[in-house]
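Lecture notes, continued. The same structure-token format from the folding unit now serves as the input rather than the output. Read the line below as a description of shape only.
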């Protein structure tokens, strides 16, 4: 009996010694990550394709630069992945950095002051996720339109819980993202009070603050564009300034309508302004946070489609609800959303072209805005 116990212990020890721990597992294939930059840098998008012949193909996208793809050598040293650059390498992000294998689905990137998690990329799942962003956000917007308590729980209660127990531990470091999540959540709360309070939404200062949420949202992005300093960023930043100036037309008409949903509507917000804003916004993301472009396109469409085809005049309400819902989701599962981002084509010609489109549309609407103001004044003087 004693010998049997010894034999069992030897067998168990053998299997324990030969078992590969999660930290030692590594799957070749495509991986990707989004690394938060320092102030004024935006975010960096990297896709790494590890191949069996110890070659890794790295694609880099970051503010002001073309898409760059290079092949380098990778080697395994214990639970580390070491990437070797040559002297003429254009992608220097992995010089002196380490990729630590923590499990079969996670590599830890550490190259101070930059850090992040690299995750496997699955194209089919990424396409599905991309479509679901649009579908789920439109459904949520309809839920928030029709249910007072769903809105209250989602925007008043849930952010408090997540802010205490989840978001601080998720590794989101870029200042703009933190400002954005709280500003759009607070805007959603403000709009809820406008919709469901008997007298709150009747005051002009309340309506003005509702419009100011959008203006501040734009100017936050404009400051980021100008801090980048590249010509496309500067052009798009000017477009954002024009968008801010022209958004206030008819703001005194903001308020709840008489429908059973009590939607907060802005009847005077023109479709042309919305289109010019949408183009400016997606160009902003494309220039500064290239890895987030595909998802943000769907986030924009999720508020524009309902405002054009489900209920007109609700764009501002829908924009706050869908953007807040997206950022709450992103802050809760940042690495999951980043590993499923689709890569968007990027080069100097494309960046300049979309920036020119953005500023042209906003200049055109600025002209329309000036004509509206002039007409309104001439009518008042008659």
């Amino acid at each position: 009996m004693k010998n049997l116990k010894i034999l069992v212990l030897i067998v168990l020890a053998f299997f324990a010694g030969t078992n590969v721990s999660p930290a030692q597992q590594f799957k070749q294939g495509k991986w990707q990550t989004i690394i938060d930059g320092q102030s004024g840098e935006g975010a960096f998008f990297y896709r790494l394709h590890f191949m069996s012949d110890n070659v890794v193909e790295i694609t880099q996208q970051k503010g002001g630069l073309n898409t760059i793809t290079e092949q380098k050598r990778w080697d395994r040293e214990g639970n580390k992945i070491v990437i070797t650059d040559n002297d003429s390498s254009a992608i220097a992000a992995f010089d002196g950095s380490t990729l630590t294998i923590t499990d079969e689905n996670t590599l830890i990137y550490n190259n101070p002051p930059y850090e992040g998690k690299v995750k496997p990329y699955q194209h089919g799942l990424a396409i599905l996720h991309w479509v679901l962003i649009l579908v789920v956000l439109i459904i949520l917007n309809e839920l928030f339109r029709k249910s007072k308590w769903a809105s209250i729980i989602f925007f008043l209660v849930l952010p408090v819980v997540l802010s205490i127990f989840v978001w601080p531990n998720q590794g989101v470091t870029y200042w703009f993202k933190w400002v954005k999540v709280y500003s759009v959540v607070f805007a959603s709360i403000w709009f809820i009070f406008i919709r469901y309070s008997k007298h709150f939404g009747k005051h002009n200062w309340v309506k003005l603050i509702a419009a100011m949420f959008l203006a501040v949202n734009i100017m936050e992005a404009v400051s980021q564009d100008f801090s980048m300093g590249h010509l496309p960023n500067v052009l798009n930043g000017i477009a954002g300034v024009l968008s801010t100036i022209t958004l206030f037309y008819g703001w005194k008409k903001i308020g709840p309508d008489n429908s059973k949903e009590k939607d907060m509507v802005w009847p005077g917000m023109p479709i042309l302004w919305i289109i010019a804003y949408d183009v400016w916004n997606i160009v902003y993301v494309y220039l500064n946070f290239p890895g987030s472009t595909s998802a943000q396109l769907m986030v924009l469409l999720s508020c524009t489609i309902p405002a054009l085809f489900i209920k007109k005049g609700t764009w501002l309400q829908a924009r706050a609800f869908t953007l807040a819902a997206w950022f709450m989701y992103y802050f809760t599962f940042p690495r999951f959303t980043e590993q499923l981002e689709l890569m968007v084509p990027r080069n100097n010609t494309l960046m300049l072209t979309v920036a020119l489109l953005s500023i042209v549309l906003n200049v055109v609407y600025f002209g329309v805005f000036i004509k509206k103001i002039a007409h309104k004044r001439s009518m008042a003087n008659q």
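Point for the exam: Residues 276 and 351 are 17 Å apart (CA to CA).
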